[in-house]
Amino acid sequence: MGVTLTIDQHIARVVIDRPEALNAMNESVLVQMKQAVDSIQNNENVRVAIFMGGGVKSFVAGADINYMSSMTPLEGEKWGKFGQSVFMAISELRCPTIAVIQGYALGGGTELAISCDLRIASEKACFAQPEVKLGIIPGFGGTQRLTRLIGPGYAKQMIFTGDQFSALQALAMGLVNEVVSHDKLIERVDALAQSIISGSPNGIRLAKEAIEHGLQGSLNKGLQLEAALFGLCFASPEQREGMTAFVEKRKPKF
Ligand code: CO8
């Protein structure tokens, strides 16, 4: 058990499966996750990557508390940096990423979910940043990505209280894109993945690049990058195909 990667029909599926610890992440899980992410990045055929937890109860119940319990400050910093690097590799994947949250997304689990582009939650999902209850702070990007995603008010509420938030509360905060019934979760995610796959891979990749870089700088810099990438689209056969298909009243073939 650990992390498995399957790639089928342009869709990569990464499953974190440690049933004995509700999929909590120890070093081995993070190492395997990084290997899976590298394989996806190196595979031009992948157009969507889906991250999910094994079993029905948990997405990921955080970093492994037993593993962290006797760390020294230096070991803690090293562990935090390692987790950050893995989650950065996820957020830097060229293809869109979807976190499928069927149950607990706690601590590092919420941080993993927010490293993905989109989050689809079952009605049974629950979210928390419970680190302060353990005497630590979110260390895999939570203080930064969560604040950027849902704003400082809700991020501080989650981080200062450590309380659990339901899927519907997460939806209201903008933490997830959609909440769907538990038994329809996979169906909905597959439909979403198909919708993404039907678009121009080059267009989607450049749009993601513009959004991600734009978020890190000023509006003006972001707009300059958007214009440059917009121009680049016209160097791709996908632009010709997309527009020709429209004119010919048929579906584009990407
Ligand atoms: N780490 C290790 N083991 C875990 C974890 C975890 N995060 N979560 C669950 N488990 C284990 C339990 O210990 C238990 O093991 P065992 O059967 O051997 O006793 C097994 O999974 C099943 O769990 P429970 O019996 O507790 O199941 P319940 O349904 O009663 O409760 C909960 C489920 C509510 C999810 C509960 O297990 C829980 O509260 N888990 C801890 C959640 C948590 O606090 N997560 C945050 C961890 S800290 C973190 O993620 C920080 C990331 C950044 C670190 C950066 C460092 C620098």
UniProtKB/TrEMBL annotation:
Catalytic reaction annotation: a short-chain (3S)-3-hydroxyacyl-CoA = a short-chain (2E)-enoyl-CoA + H2O
Pfam family, any one: ECH_1
One GO biological process term: fatty acid beta-oxidation
EC code(s) of this entry: 4.2.1.150
Hydrolase as UniProt keyword: no
Domain of life: Bacteria
Gene3D superfamilies with a match to the protein in the record: 2-enoyl-CoA Hydratase, Chain A, domain 1 (3.90.226.10), Lyase 2-enoyl-coa Hydratase, Chain A, domain 2 (1.10.12.10)
Matches recorded under PROSITE patterns: ENOYL_COA_HYDRATASE
InterPro entries, sorted: ClpP/crotonase-like_dom_sf, Enoyl-CoA_hyd/isom_CS, Enoyl-CoA_hydra/iso, Enoyl-CoA_hydra_C
Pathway where it operates: Lipid metabolism; butanoate metabolism
Keyword tags: Lyase
GO MF annotation: an example: 3-hydroxyacyl-CoA dehydratase activity
Quaternary structure note: Homotetramer.
PANTHER family: ENOYL-COA HYDRATASE, MITOCHONDRIAL, ENOYL-COA HYDRATASE-RELATED
Family per record: Belongs to the enoyl-CoA hydratase/isomerase family.
Protein name: short-chain-enoyl-CoA hydratase
Organism of derivation: Desulfosporosinus lacus DSM 15449
